Amino acid sequence: MDELRIGATTIALEPGDITRVHAEAIVNAANAHLAGGGGVDGAIHRAGGPSIMEECRRIGACKTGGAVLTGAGNLPSRYVIHAVAPRYAGRPRDGELLRSAYGTALDVACKLGLRTIAFPSLGTGAYGYPIDEAADIALSTARGHALGETTLERITFVLFSERDLAAFRAALGRASVHKG
Ligand code: ADP
Fold first, then answer.
1. N or C: where does the chain have the smaller number of CB atoms within 10 Å of the terminal CB?
2. How does pLDDT run across 11-33, given as a tens digit for each residue?
3. What is the distance in A from the centroid of ligand 1 to the CA of 180?
4. CATH class of 2-177
């Protein structure tokens, strides 16, 4: 089963396209200029329509490791949380920044009182973060968040490729072993 229960929160993995997911918030793998791009960012703006980019332009920018909130346009979710992963260069700081991008997005959702959030695999496409390491960071950050006080009942990772899903499954196994 692709789930891990931590207190009242379930961390779940599912294959698919995040633009079709019905979560209160979906997370975008944005860039620091909030300028749109390829990958999941392009897919979210295409499916969500122009209002998301209009809001991004008004916000202007987001630091690497941070996250900002917009509405979700035509998407089935209510909000898009745009999180900025680092461009991977093998520095120890890259791990901190990826952890921070996940953690800030979770905090934004929790401050809004949301119960459900869905993430793509941040940083592992154009930004080049190695997927196995990134999956460990994603799941340990979600687990750490769930161990604290949170409104989130379900944190879903939506994996677009077989390779991403396999890497997150292996990481979920490691996170389960370290449970407790
Ligand atoms: P980054 O620039 O942060 O690396 P990318 O969008 O290039 O972001 O890639 C991040 C991950 O998102 C990749 O693993 C890619 O397979 C995945 N991805 C691409 N399109 C979608 C989608 N529609 N839904 C979910 N994940 C997606």
1. C
2. 999 999 999 999 999 999 999 99
3. 31
4. alpha beta
